[in-house]
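Example record for the data management plan.
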Amino acid sequence: MPIQRQELEAYLAQLLSVAQFKDYAPNGLQVEGRNQIQHIVTGVTASQALIDAAIALNADALLVHHGFFWKSEALPIVRTKKQRIAALLGADLNLFGYHLPLDAHPELGNNAQLAKQLGLIPTGRCGDQNLVWLGELPVPMSFDTFTRHIAVTLNRQPLSIGPADQIVRQVAWCTGGAQGYFHDVANLDVDCFITGEASEFVTHLAKESGVGFIAAGHHATERYGIAALGQHLAQHFGLQHTHLDLDNPV
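Corresponding structural encoding:
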């Protein structure tokens, strides 16, 4: 049976503890569509390709991790933003976006789901808004072996900086563009930090601190949370769910 848009929005706000986070974009309904929702499509980023695919599937709602209206972006609705929003409005398709709340959720979040994929055992959190996760490998392995494990699991060759034979036991991770947290992580008792992207400084900090650094892809590290959220909603409400993983090399 379909559910009402407001019911879905209220449930997601509570499930993801949206009010607890200071974020760079609104979390929740970003573009209003039809009232009744039966078929939801999930994907990482509300690109034109994802929107068009959701429309082709006759979806009622599109749920993404990277939505619209970021703090640093220009306000006018022109060019690509205009085209995306026009497509959503023309199809009466709801757009829901959840950024930091989806990163942080203890079961469905990006960090939790990446840990599940890689076989990491979470032991704690740290950093701004507790967005960095700490954990350990059930069986220690060399940095080179761990890098290859990540490559096979995510089907993407990561950028890794660290001695190949260094033993990895304790791991810190934060999905997406969280390389800035490496400054804090490098002072902790960890052997390796995993995130999605890299900046120039991480090469020097990894070599000087002795903490290995792995950039496994922004998209690749964040495609599991939104899929898990969609699956949860499908089971909880009896909705149809389609996850679309549109590959992104970044």
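Summary line stored alongside the record: The first strand starts at residue 3 and ends at 4.
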